[in-house]
Design a protein that fits this description.
With 231 residues, the protein is mostly beta strands. The protein has 2 helices and 14 strands. The protein starts with 5 loop residues before the first strand and ends with a helix.
């Protein structure tokens, strides 16, 4: 009900891509994050997905149940899932990314964008879930700009495995501000990654020496997708 995703095609199949923890149980300790410590664990199984597709006047509803969908792609090392779809996203004005659109995080000059739907994009959590209500009241997506390069020597000497790291340049510090971004595309000169999670950290200013709280965003490299979807 409150998550983001995007479309990716390989060979002749188009997939809905999102974070696996939006749908299925995930233990972060099993993920391919190198030496980077992650301690979250989800236990919910939420196999029914209501897509709200932006049309010219309103959002069109499309329901998917992964229990009835052959060819769903995921593995224990990634907090990513690919769900085959039988609709044409381009009919609704969406971009469908392909392997040729993938760009490396190393190619980013300074910042990248996560385009998704934070929790406040949706009707209140106190409201009983109703698909017509959601279709009419979801607000426009939000762009989260992430700083990816920093002056001076690298601050990350730790092995981060298949994940990359950025910092929210809007300096949001409350985790609730980021609920719903999981699964959104990380965009630079093409598709860079898949938004996974956020962690609040203390950052020391190089000039002032003062400490400020900032939100660190973790995302999977987009080049995991061809291997995941072809396996």
């Amino acid at each position: 009900m409150r998550a983001s995703g995007f479309f990716f095609a390989i060979d002749t199949q188009t997939y809905l891509i999102t974070a696996r923890h939006n749908l299925l149980p995930v233990n972060a300790a099993t993920l391919a994050t190198g030496d980077w410590p992650l301690d979250f664990e989800t236990e919910d199984s939420l196999p029914t997905i209501d897509l709200y597709l932006q049309d010219t006047q309103s959002r069109v509803q499309h329901r998917i149940d992964i229990r009835d969908t052959p060819g769903v792609r995921f593995n224990a090392n990634l907090d990513v899932v690919g769900i085959p779809i039988d609709l044409t996203p381009q009919d609704y004005g969406y971009t469908v990314w392909t392997p040729t659109d993938i760009s490396s995080p190393e190619s980013i000059d300074n910042s990248t964008d996560s385009l998704g739907f934070p929790g406040y994009s949706f009707p209140s959590g106190d409201t009983e879930y109703d698909t017509d209500l959601y279709a009419n009241e979801i607000i426009d997506p939000h762009v989260l700009t992430l700083q990816t390069k920093f002056p001076g020597p690298s601050q990350l000497s730790i092995d981060t495995g298949l994940i990359e790291i950025g910092f929210d340049t809007d300096t949001g510090t409350q985790s609730s501000e980021y609920n719903g971004f999981s699964g959104s595309p990380i965009l630079g000169d093409g598709l860079v990654g898949i938004h996974m999670s956020n962690q609040k950290v203390s950052a020391i200013g190089t000039n002032t020496g003062s400490s400020d709280e900032e939100m660190m965003i973790l995302y999977w490299r987009a080049d995991v997708l061809p291997q995941l979807l072809s396996s």
